[in-house]
Input
Amino acid sequence: MSNQELVVLGQSDDAGACCPGLLTAPLDEGQAVELAKVFKALGDPVRLRLLSMIASRAGGEVCVCDLTPAFELSQPTISHHLKLLRQAGLIDCERRGTWVYYWLVPEMTDRLAGILTRPAGEPMPERTAPAGATS
Amino acid sequence: MSNQELVVLGQSDDAGACCPGLLTAPLDEGQAVELAKVFKALGDPVRLRLLSMIASRAGGEVCVCDLTPAFELSQPTISHHLKLLRQAGLIDCERRGTWVYYWLVPEMTDRLAGILTRPAGEPMPERTAPAGATS
Output
């Protein structure tokens, strides 16, 4: 895969500037479009299960032949979900003989975690719902 | 909103067990279904921009009247997107007179960040793509 998504999500060369700042500043339209693609890839239960199976596998990679039996879905359907995860930059793969092997791209999950992490030393304002104000 | 999603995402009473472990163990189907709803809510550029506008607002809350002018969309459309973010547990709101005010639910973004964070002391295996092995 290209690193296009990674570049978009990590806009600066600074080591500390890992995130466009979902919680710290309004995203511009381009950032939002790119980031939405990654979250959309995560917005499906089968893809989340596939990602967790791949990410948690000891040794760091999984044969597609070990993923398919966990689902009551055809191999083409599983392959389609894997393709969407790969296009989002969350996993990568390599064909070896008959089978394709998949692994997590931890840089992408690190970036998403960073994007969703509150800035250090800047706690969100404490909110307490006023009594009777919400339905 | 109910706290149903928050309960599902944080299954245990342990203080340290904040996450179902997307990267550490295969998600079960129920966990994946609940988590996918939240990521799906994030999988849209307008909703991401709305969330970032709400989360980054000094004072911690935003009037819907200050959100709508940033988009070339009708107020009902904006309200629909806000409703999906609220149903996912990412924001909450309160009506005061004419306007509805929105704020981030930081517990949910904290949980997502935790879910996407690699376990401490367990670095992912380093992968180097074998030369010529990938197309």
About this structure: Residues 29-42 of chain B form the longest helix (14 residues). The two ends of chain B are 48 Å apart (CA to CA). The helical segments of chain B are 4-9, 29-42, 45-55, 64-67, 75-87, 106-115.
